Every structure is written in C-alpha cells, then in structure tokens.
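G., before I forget:
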Amino acid sequence: MATNTSQSRTARYGEEFKSFLSETWLGYALILPAVILLAAIIFYPTLRGVQMAFLEVSLLQPGQEELVGLENFAEMVNDAVFRTALWQTVLLTALAVSIQYLLGMALALVLKEKLPGMRIFRSLSMVSWVLPIIVMVILFRFMVQNGFGPANIVLDALGLETTYWFGDPEMAFPLIVLMHVWRNVPFYAIALMAAMNSIPETQYEAARLDGAGALQRFRHVTLPQISYVSMIMIVLHVIFTFNNFEIVYLSTGGGPLGNTEVLATYVYKTAFETYALGYAASMGVVMLVLMLVFTTVYVKLEDMD
Amino acid sequence: MPDSSPDSFRRRKFVQSLGLGAGIALAGCSGDGDGGDGGGGDSLEGDGGDGGDSLEGTDTDGGNGGSGGDVLHWDAGLPSDEQDRENTIAEISSMFEERTGETLQITDFTYEDARSGFLTGGRSGDPDSIEGVLSHLTEYIEADLIEPIGDKAEALEWFDGYVESTIDAMSYQGELYALPYTGNGRGLIYRHDVLDELGQDPPETADEFLEIGRLIKTEMDITPFHNCTKDGGVRGFQEWMSHVYQHTDNLYVQEGDGWSLDIDAETLGLIFDKFYYQVWASEEPIADPDQRGTGWQVNDPEYINGNLAMIECGPWIRSWTSGPEIDDSDAAVAVLDEQSAVDHLPYAEGGQRGTYLEVKPVMVNAHSDQTDLGFEAVASRTSPDVMNTIQEWEPGEYITPVHEDVESTLDNENWMPFTDVFETGRALAKISWGPVRQEFYPLMQEVVYGETDPYEAGESLHSNLQDLEGDL
C-alpha cells in the first residue's frame, strides 16, 4: 500500500516535472544564459568555498589540499578572535540595520510631504548613498582627525574632549555604526517613500472618517502596506552589513585593540595574511549559514504575519 | 487570465526560491552593494608607492594605466600624479618596444590589490611581469609564482651596475628572482631648527631620543614625535622591523631546512618599551596620545605641515609638497628644504645603527606563456636609462639609487645622511611575513594603549613568533 502511494506520488511528480518543462520551454530557454552566468560566477565559487572549508589549504600552495573534515570548524570554537569578531559583527548588524530603518522611515515621512524645495532635498538626501565607500571613509577620517577635523573643531569650541576618534577604543565601534547609518538611511528612505506613495489616499480618508488619528493611520494603514518593502530592505541590509568589509578595513583595519574586528575583516586577514584559505573558507561557510538561517526565518515570520 | 493551478503555484514558488537564493548569494558576494563604489573597487591598504604602507583610496584603484598591448605588466610603484604616471608609463613602454618590437600594457594597481590579484590569479599566466615590495617577492617565491631570472639578467649590459645589497635582497638560495628599481632606508627625519633652538644634537640612542622628545614637549609648541600604530598598517610593521634590525641581522635565520627566531624576548620588550610604550603610553609620552591608531596618513603630512618635530621615514617624503593633505605648499617646501635634516634612527641599549631596507623588485610570472617578454618588461622597468628619465617625475624614489649609472636626486646637504642610512639597511629574510605581521599588530597596540606591560608583550611576541618557526 505504502509502495503504491509512493509510486503514484513519484509518477505525479514526474508528470508535473514534464509539464513544468514542456509548457514554458521558451521562457526557460530565455533565462538559461542568466542561469549559466549565475552558476559560473555565484554557484561555482560558493560550492568551491564550501568544499575548501573541509580542507587544509594554503593561499601560497593552493594545489596542496588535505582533507581535515570538521577540524577547521572545531578550531573556530577555540579561536577568541573569531568569537569576538562574530559578536561584533552581530552587534554591528543589529545596531546599524535597526537605526537605519527607524531613521529611514522618519526621513521617508518627511520626503513624502509636498513642501517647497522637497524635490531638491530628495535628490540631495541621496548623496551619502551614491558616494563611493572609500570617499566616505576618507571624509570621516578627515572629520574626526585630531586638531583640524571639523568634528573636533566643533567639540573643542564647545569645551568637549577631542581625539582621533577612530583611534579611541571606546568610540571606534560606534563610529563604524554611524558610518553604516549615514550611508544607508537615504536608501531606506527612498524605498519606503516609494512604498508609502503607492498607498491609495482614499484609505487615509476612510481612516480619517472613522476617527483615526495620525498615529493610528500610520499604525493601521501605512505600516501594513510597507511591510513587504521593509522586509526586503531589512533582509538585504542585514546581509550587506554582516558581510561588509571595506568600511571597517579602510577606517580602522579592525583596531584599535581589535575593537572593530568583524568577520569579513578577520576572514580577509586569515586568507591573505596568514594564508589559511581552508580556515578562512570555513568562517565564510559559517557566515553563509547564519545569513541563510536569518533570511529563511525572517521571511517565514513575515509570511505568517 | 492568470493561471492559478497548483502546478503554476509550485513553479512560482520554485522560481521565487531560485531568485531568493541568487539574491542572497549576490548580496553576500557584494558585501555592501549599497550604491556604486565608483567603478574599480575600493583600493585597500598597500605597501605604499612612497615606501609607506598604503595608498588607501588614492587614485590607483587598479586598471588605470597603459596602452593596449600583448605583454601585461602590473605596477603599483608608479607616480600618483596622473600626468607623471602617464609619462612614466610611456617611457617604460617605449623602452620595451625599442628592445622587443612588441607593445607593453602597464596596469596601475595598489600594492594590496596587485598582491591579492597575483596570489589568487597569477597562475592563469597574467600578468607577464609584476612590480612589488620585498615581502611580496618572498610570498611569490613560496607560491612558485615567479621564476629565477639570473641568466637573463646577467646578460644585460647594465647588470653589473646594480648596488650589491639590492641584488642580494632580490636573491634566494643562490637564485636571482627580480631586479630592483628603487631603494631606501628608514631614517630619523627631524626639525633641525627645533633641535638647534634647544641646543641639542640629533639623538643617537633611544634614551637620548626620549630625553630630547620630552624637552621639546616642555619647551616648544610642537608635538615631538609620531610613529605609525594603525592595526594592519604595513608602514607600522616596517618601522618596528627597523628597530629589530638594530639588534639582529634578521628576525629569523635559516637553520637546516627551517627557520629559527634570532632575537630574545627581552630585546623585543625593550623595543616595545622605548619606541611604543615610552612614546605613547608612559606618564611622559612624547607623541600625542590622541593620535594613537593612526598610520602614515597622519605621520607624513603632519610632519610636512610643521606639526611634528621628529618622524621615522624614508626619502620619498621630500617630494610631497602639495595635495589635499598639505596645508600650505610654500610652508611645506620650507619645512622640508630648510628646516629638516636626516640622521640614523636611534637605537636602544645593546643595539647599533640599522634600519629596514626597502628595495622594490620587478618580477617575471613563472606561469606566463611568454616569460622572455615578461623578462624584457622587467628589464625595461629597471634599466638605468628609464630610471634616469623618470626620476624627474618622482625624485623621492631616486635619492638613494640602486644602480651606479643613475644620478641621485639628492641636492640638499641636510638630506645627504640618507646615503649612509641606506648602507645600514637590512633586507627582509625570505620568509612568509604575513603571520609575523599578524602577531605584531595586536601586541603593539596593547602596548601603545597602555593595556600591556611592554616586556610582557615582548615575552608574548617572542613565544608567538617561536611558534611560527615551522610555518614560515
């Protein structure tokens, strides 16, 4: 009986697969080049990275590989720098994405208003997002430079402490968070504003007629209808921030005292400074798994909501 | 009419999943896909075209230069000024064409981009030749990426004119792997007007150096000293190595098939104490503690702008008198030409004069399918004729020339001691230096921030460096 059921299920899946292929072959033919391209530039390197996570392989002698099973992952458990970098990566991601979302939402509400000069303000608000990262880092480094940095000049005028803030063990990490926020808030704002603009005005009018105040209209009309865009923005930026390398590497190199070390910079140093490609790949796999789990759980929760 | 059958639903789910997966992978690969990075990708930290440790974010993001050609050469040592860079490329290409009748494509990189690109992709055969720094030479030999060029080099009519120590620096186990085109030693560059006013001679020992630094701090309105303490900064590592070379000819020496650490923990602690703890974290620091964690980006321009009395630096700084980092070009010229002088780096007890020798190699890719032409690119880049021409655009690189037929660009008596400093320089041993650097940075920063006693840091570093002996 069980065998019959299993056979019929297999047959049904076979049928479905056949119709899947036959019905829309032209469509699949059209996306084939893109799939091949993705396979070449995304899937192959990813699979190779996963494979390398189970090998001991040096950057200097990539041809000499030795299978070490789970040893690389076991090493991570005892690696204090890895644990610190993981914690700081999670903290950076959580802080940066939540602050970006809240400020992006606030900016979107402002940009949505039909006030004089708003079109110019909308364009100007995108400047930080379109700046190359290296330019942003140089700007920030200049601003917090001791003596002549504008931020320190202002602080000095107010009688407050001045220092090279990227070199301050307490302040370097908050500065990294600030750079992420400064850069990405406009992107959130534009995306959320677009979602808000697609909500029919009649819904707000209906809510007003029902006696809803501004806060209630935002809670019951605006928020539900921007949730899908919010989900996409949050998922993308969690991944971007979690994997970000340039901002930290260019501004602090992971210092001072390792206080801004994140997984991406640690993976880079492991691969290119200590040549341990296998160990670096295993950390990359951990990052990939964490992101996949986060994305799956978040998307499921959003679906249920 | 929309198809709402279960089949269609599954297909949609399948395509959605595929899209989601690809999206995650793309986002993961891009690291920060938010906004254009301006093309060529951000340049990372390199060893510095100026002999310093970095060209972070300058205009050498890779892929800037050159004419289209059959032979490909990667170079991170080209002038940063666009016009000077084009002139230099044209000069090297012209020499190559004259020697071979072929065309040479020169691509401008940062050191870090060139290094990572060559380590990961050099086996594909591109580029045919590459310029780098000494630590790269070692890595490329270890990775079997470059080939010995001794026979071809000796056939060059100008080969005998290279300074012997620079050829030694390009050699490993009796084989020559590269030709040099520039070299320098790190010296103490100081404001002689400041020291004259205080009635002081330049310091010979670390104690004299600290004493003068403290005197400057109390008597003058200028920060006495600065050295590079940025995590991961190659310049900081080179400065530390300069002091190591005052106590030993090499940090590691070859013993049989392996390498053995050739310095004791006490000396490593002494170096940390005199040049990091006393400078930054003691009760009487001679550097500005608010500048901890900074690299050459602060060190060099702050000196040029007249805000520092002493730095450890190479001769390249002499030609840096303009650009966004320089407050006043005329004042910078005055600081460098009239108010500065050079001497050997001070050394701690038990040490002697010595410094890090920077020699930049040009190498042939062993995996190129045209290694003869690759060698011709090396020969063109390092020929005295080309060096004599391009020194006009980059005089700082030719203050201490690596070839006897190249005229020194030195025209100021105060800077003459760089020639003596160059002679005390020691080249890096042919080991993989990445792991050594990674052991140095965290302990150096702990000392600089006063988190660890310098002698305890010396003990830890000694132990960690000993552990590396088998992996070098």
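The radius of gyration of chain B is 24 Å. Residues 27-68 of chain B have pLDDT under 50 and may be disordered.

More on Monday.
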